Amino acid sequence: MCHCIQIRNCCLRALPKKEGEEQKTIKIQAWWRGTLVHRILLHAALRACIIQYWWRQRLKGLLEKKRSSVLENYTREKWAVIKLQSWVHMWHARLCYCRLLQAARIIQIYWRWRNCQAHGFFRGRYDLTASHLGLELDIFLGSHICWDHTSVGLRTSSLSQ
């Protein structure tokens, strides 16, 4: 067994040691290697914890984004449904209103015609002279009175001149 220390493939001779010292040296070296391995494992565990924390945060952010987009789409869809329902409701209300308005117009036209037929009359007089025609008409349609006073000039024929 060689008691030399090798540095870059060079062998340096150490002083001979006693048998008890060699056992102590081996124990110290083993302890030191164990400490180094322990430190390396702690660093590796710390790095693994850091990577796991980062990954969990990343997944949490992605999940939050997905949840937010799903909620936004749901909200947008609900608003679209509500708008569409309100448009249909207003269209139906307008349709009913237009039907009632048309019915009211028909009833009004009927009553106006009935009043004109039942209570309406007209009277008038005219003046006819050689050069013009004068008309006076009074028309009574229910509560409405219409007066027309018209004077029309008559053309005389060219033969009589």
TrEMBL record:
An example molecular function term from Gene Ontology annotations: calmodulin binding
Keywords: Repeat
InterPro entries noted in UniProt: IQCF
Taxonomy, superkingdom: Eukaryota
PANTHER family for the chain: IQ MOTIF CONTAINING F (PTHR21633), IQ MOTIF CONTAINING F4 (PTHR21633:SF10)
Stated name of the protein: IQCF1
Source organism (scientific name): Cervus elaphus hippelaphus (European red deer)
